[in-house]
Amino acid sequence: MVRIRKNMYTCISGETESPVANKYQIGCAINPTAYISHHTAMEYYGVTDQVYYDIYVSAEKTFDKFEFDGYTYYHIPSKCKSGIESIKYSGGIRITTKERTVIDSIKDLDKISGLEEVIANIEGMTILREEKLIHYLKEYGIKFLYQKTGFLLWPYKKQLKLSDGFLKYVKNKWD
């Protein structure tokens, strides 16, 4: 066994000499409300083509950043309470839905990913459910977020299967 941080441990594999718990499981075990979000969720979904060593974890209860096994775990506060799913047979991984991940990434693009990375992640998506996007936009209730979302998703409307009605709805929210 090895200590990850205070009151958090994992076993070490005798075969690989690596931690048994992966970075996603560790992030979700930080506290009972913890879940993977932002760029780390994009990575989990296989959307991004790079491996990053920053792990973004949202949770109601804050925690101090820490390092373990070459990864740095950061707390990202969120006011959105929905759009979190538990992945079956994953060892406890909780993660934002693809739609919530897109909205979170757009909302926090200046803090976490940057414009180029967010665009690359959007390009890696296939279908986004409009009703879910609208739900998360409403939950955040930030006018500028509607603007950024419409601006960034418009060029990919065919790829993402977004209707003109959705884009019109988003546009009407910022007019």
Describe the structure.
- With 175 residues, the chain is of the alpha+beta class.
- It has one domain.
- The protein is 39% helix and 16% strand.
- The protein contains eight helices and eight strands; from the N terminus they run ββαβαβββββαααααα.
- The protein has helices spanning 23-28, 38-44, 98-107, 115-123, 130-140, 143-153, 157-160, 164-174, and strands spanning 2-5, 8-10, 35-36, 54-58, 66-68, 71-75, 84-86, 94-96.
- Strands 3-4-6-5 form a four-stranded mixed sheet. A two-stranded antiparallel sheet has the order 1-2. Strands 7-8 form a two-stranded antiparallel ribbon.
- Strand 1 (2-5) and strand 2 (8-10) form a beta hairpin.
- Helix 2 packs antiparallel against helix 3 (98-107).
- It is elongated.
- The protein starts with a strand and ends with a helix.
Number of domain modules:
1
| Radius of gyration over all CA atoms, rounded | 17 Å
Q: What percent of residues adopt helix (DSSP H or I)?
A: 25-40%
Distance between the termini: 57 Å
Structural class: alpha+beta
**Biggest sheet: strands side by side, in what order?**
3-4-6-5
Largest sheet: 4 strands, mixed
Instruction: Estimate the strand proportion.
Output: 15-25%
Q: Which overall shape is indicated by the principal axes computed on the Cα atoms?
A: elongated
β-strand number: 8
Parts with pLDDT < 50 across at least 5 consecutive residues: none
Order of helices and strands: EEHEHEEEEEHHHHHH
Mean pLDDT: 93
What is the number of helical segments per DSSP (H or I, 4+ residues)?
8
